[in-house]
Write a structure and sequence with these properties.
The structure is a single chain. This protein is an alpha/beta fold. 34% of the residues lie in helices and 15% in strands. It is globular, with a radius of gyration of 23 Å. This is Dihydrothymine dehydrogenase.
């Protein structure tokens, strides 16, 4: 890989010239497909990905681990590990999904996505964001190699249920629906709506609403004030009965 969060300062994959030089050097000495493993420790992966492709890379792996610190032992005041290392697992999935989608939209090259894949749903998400293949490591470490059968089975059942004959049938379908924060902020906001028949008046949503968009009436039933709603969606995520939605 061009990147390794465990050693050095990730200078290779953060330097376009070095990416080009090393990719071309490898291409000269092998007839095998050459892939470049990208680092997430950059602000913009697209120029580096484009440079790797232009240098002859056959595919990209997105991505390596996120540079992180393992935490501090508050009793001793010392870090659990005395050096920065690579952080992986489910927590980095949103970060890697961002990079996969950005590169998929800008660079025409196969992408092998890796980062936080622990379920067949994770695989589907990455493919819908433009990945050609998907890798997993954490799931195997946690649950053994038998987890791979579960991932494949879940993916197969999903494709059968949706009528997909190939991953190409749904690869990248999420990309047209991604926009910038600026454009999204300019859109008319969604407001909370309530399906009263689903609500059991548990009150969980009231605890997370900061905008006074939810209240209980004199009979103790939940009601909404859509005009106060900011559209943050926190109440929707909190509701265990799926009685709330944004429209």
């Amino acid at each position: 890989p061009m990147s390794d969060a465990h050693v050095g300062q990730n200078t290779v994959e953060q330097n376009i010239e070095m990416v080009v030089t090393q990719t071309k050097a490898v291409k000269k000495v092998t007839s095998l497909p050459v892939g470049v493993k990208m680092t997430p420790n950059v602000s913009d992966m697209v120029p580096i990905a484009q440079a790797a492709k232009d240098a002859g890379a056959d595919f990209l792996t997105i991505s390596n681990s996120v540079k992180a610190l393992a935490g501090v032992d508050i009793e001793t005041g010392k870090p659990y590990l005395p050096a920065y290392g690579g952080y992986t697992g489910p927590a980095i999935k949103p970060i890697i999904q961002r990079f996969v989608s950005e590169v998929a939209r800008a660079v025409d090259i196969p992408i092998s996505a890796v980062g936080g894949v622990c379920s067949w749903e994770d695989i589907v998400e990455y493919i819908m964001l433009g990945a050609t293949t998907v890798q997993t490591v954490t799931a195997v470490i946690w649950d053994g190699y038998e987890v791979l059968e579960k991932l494949i089975s879940g993916l197969s059942q999903f494709m059968e249920r949706k009528g997909y004959n190939s991953i190409e049938d749904f690869r990248g379908i999420a990309l047209p629906h991604i926009t910038t924060v600026q454009k999204y902020a300019a859109c008319p906001p969604n407001h909370v709506t309530l399906e009263q028949e689903k609500c059991d008046d548990c009150g969980l949503c009231l605890k997370v609403c900061f905008y006074d968009a939810l209240y209980t009436d004199r009979q103790g039933h939940l009601n909404t004030r859509p005009e106060n709603c900011d559209g943050c969606g926190l109440c929707v995520e909190t509701c265990p009965r799926q009685a709330l939605s944004l429209k």
